[in-house]
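Translate sequence into C-alpha cells.
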Amino acid sequence: ISESPQTNEFKGTTEEAPVKESPHTSEFKGAALVSPISKSMLERLSKFEVEDAENVASYEWTHLVRLLRLIILIRIFHLLHQKRQLEKLMRRLVSENKRRYTRDGFDLDLTYITERIIAMSFPSSGRQSFYRNPIEEVVRFLDKKHRNHYRVYNLCSERAYDPKHFHNRVGRIMIDDHNVPTLHEMVAFTKEVNEWMAQDLENIVAIHCKGGKNRYVGYFAHVKHLYNWNLPPRRILFIKRLIIYSIRGDVCDLKVQVVMEKKVVFSSTSLGNCLILHDIETDKVLIDVFDGPPLYDDVKVQFFSL
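Result follows.
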C-alpha cells in the first residue's frame, strides 16, 4: 500500500513536532517552586514584626509604670512633708505661748528652768504624739544632751508609759490633773531630786505633768526653801470665812465644797451651814462658815457655779 504524501506529512508532524512549553506554564511552575520559600519568609517577617511591636508596647508600658511609681513617690514625700509641718503647727498651738526648744534639729515643748532642771510636756506616742512631744524625740534629745545623766519625773496620775524608754530612770508622783500635790509628796520629791543631783554635777532632771504647764516646779522650789525637806508639825484649824475677790455676776447658785484626804468633809448644800454674801461695790463674795469640821494637813476648797 502506497502511503499518501499527506499521510506522511501528518506522521512526520506527529513524530517530530516538539512539545513547546508556554511561557505562562514556566511562570506558574517557577511560582510553584518559589511559593513555599516566600511563605516562610513572610511568616518570619510577620513574626519579627509582632515581636517588635510587643517589645515596643512592653517598653512603653514599663516606662509608664516607672513614671507612675515616681509620681506616687513624689506624692508620698509631699504628704509626709505636709504631715510634719501640720504636726509642728499643732504642737505649737497646743503649747501656746510656752517656750519651745527649737535648736539642733529638735522642736519640742521643752525648756530649761535652770541648767539642771528641764520642764516639758507629756512624752506621748500614737495619736497624741501628733500634738504633744513624741516620746522617741524626747528620748533622742535626752540621750544626746545628757546621756546617762538624766532622770525623768512623771507627775501625772492619769497616764503613764514604759520606763524602758528612758532606761528605767523614771520616777512617778501621782498628781491628778488640775490639782496640786500634797505637802508630803512635794517634800519627798524635792528630797529625792536633791539626792540625785548631788551624786554628779552633770545629773539633771526632766519633769512633766499631763498638760505641760509644770506649775509644780515652782511649788517644789518653794517647799525646799520654806521647809528644808521637813514638814511642820500638824495643826488643827477651822474655816470661819472664805473670801473670793474680783467676781462678777450672780452668785446665788455658788456652792462650796471642802475636801480632805480625798473625802468631802464640808458642802454648802447642807442647810444652814454657811452664809454667802455678794459685795457688789468691791466685787467680793463673803462666805461665812458655821460649825465647820476640824481641818489638818492638805485641804482643798472647791467652788462650783451651776
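Note: The chain has three domains: 42-93, 110-227, 241-305.
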